[in-house]
Backbone:
C-alpha cells in the first residue's frame, strides 16, 4: 500500500530522516516505533506532503475512486507485487489527502470553540473533492449526521456530541481526533501517537478501534511510543533510530531484538 525508499530530510545539521526504507502492506496494522527524536513524525510529515523530502521516494497504491482522479501523477509498476504504485513524493498535502491518506497529528488540531459534532462534520465536508463527489453521489446532511452519530456511539461519546470541544478531557479529545481521521474519506490511515497520554481504559478502547478497522479491511500506519500497546496490536513493527530503520519484523521478533532493546535503553 505504501512504500518508502531511501527517504531523507535534514533540518540544517539535524539528520531527522536519513535513508529510511520500509513498506506497509494492505490490510495490516504497521507500527513505526523508536526513541524520541528518531524521525517518526518527520516520516509522517513527508508522506502527507507537509514537508518536502531532500531525497528518496514515497509510493502509494492506487485505490479505486481515489487515484483515478489524478492522471498526471507518475506511476510505476512493481511487477513482483503486481500492484500499481503512484509516486507521491513532494506532492501538495491536499493532493495526497485526496489520494486517500488520512492522518492524525501528534499535536491536537481540533477547533476548540466548536461542538464535538461540528468538528466531525468538518472532517466529512472539507475535502476538496467534495464538489466532484457531490455531483456523482450527493452526501446529504442527514447521512452525515447519521454517520457521525454511529461513530460517536461506537466509542461511547454520543452523550457529548453537542458539548464544546474545549470542555472535553484530554483523552476524549484524542478519541475525537481519531474518529475525525477515520471519518475523513480515506483508504490509508496514519496515526501519530493516538494513545499517548490517555488513560489505560481509553487506551484499550483505541486498540479495539484499530483492530476493528483492520477487520473491516483498513490499512493503518501507527506511531506509538508505548511498546506494550504497539506490540499487542501490530502485524509488523518498524523500528527507527537516528532517522534510519534499524529493525523490522513481527512483534515477537522485535520484542527479542537486542539492537531494539539497546536503542530504547539508551534513551
Ligand atoms: P520523533 O517523532 O521520532 O520523536 P521527529 O521526527 O519529531 O522525531 O524529529 C526528528 C528530529 O528532527 C529531532 O531531532 C527533531 O528535533 C528534528 N526536527 C523535527 N522537525 C523539525 C523542524 N521542523 N525543524 C527542525 N528540526 C526538526
Ligand atoms: Mg513524534
Residues:
Amino acid at each position: 500500500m505504501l512504500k518508502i525508499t531511501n527517504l531523507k530530510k535534514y533540518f540544517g545539521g539535524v539528520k531527522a530522516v536519513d535513508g529510511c526504507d520500509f513498506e506497509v502492506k494492505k490490510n495490516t496494522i504497521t507500527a513505526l516505533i523508536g526513541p524520541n527524536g528518531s524521525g517518526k513524525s518527520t516520516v509522517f510529515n513527508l508522506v502527507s506532503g507537509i514537508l518536502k523530502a531532500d531525497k528518496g521516494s514515497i509510493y502509494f497504491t492506487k485505490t479505486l475512486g481515489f487515484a483515478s482522479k489524478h492522471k498526471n501523477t507518475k506511476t510505476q509498476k512493481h511487477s513482483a507485487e503486481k500492484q500499481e504504485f503512484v509516486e507521491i513524493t513532494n506532492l501538495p498535502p491536499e493532493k495526497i489527502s485526496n489520494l486517500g491518506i488520512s492522518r492524525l497529528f501528534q499535536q491536537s488540531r481540533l477547533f476548540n470553540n466548536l461542538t464535538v459534532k461540528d468538528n466531525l462534520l468538518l472532517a466529512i465536508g472539507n475535502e476538496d473533492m467534495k464538489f466532484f463527489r457531490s455531483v456523482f453521489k450527493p452526501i446529504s446532511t442527514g447521512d452525515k449526521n447519521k454517520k457521525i452519530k454511529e461513530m460517536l456511539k461506537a466509542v461511547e461519546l454520543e452523550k457529548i456530541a453537542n458539548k464544546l470541544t474545549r470542555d472535553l478531557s484530554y483523552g476524549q479529545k484524542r478519541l475525537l481526533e481519531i474518529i475525525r481521521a477515520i471519518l475523513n474519506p480515506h483508504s490509508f490511515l496514519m496515526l501519530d501517537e493516538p494513545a499517548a497520554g490517555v488513560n489505560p481504559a481509553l487506551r484499550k478502547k483505541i486498540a479495539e478501534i484499530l483492530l476493528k478497522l483492520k477487520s473491516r479491511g483498513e490499512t493503518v500506519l501507527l506511531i506509538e511510543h508505548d511498546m506494550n500497546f504497539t506490540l499487542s496490536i501490530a502485524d509488523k513493527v518498524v523500528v527507527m533510530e537516528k532517522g534510519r530503520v534499524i529493525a523490522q519484523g513481527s512483534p515477537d521478533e522485535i520484542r527479542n531484538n537486542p539492537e531494539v532493546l539497546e536503542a530504547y535503553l539508551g534513551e
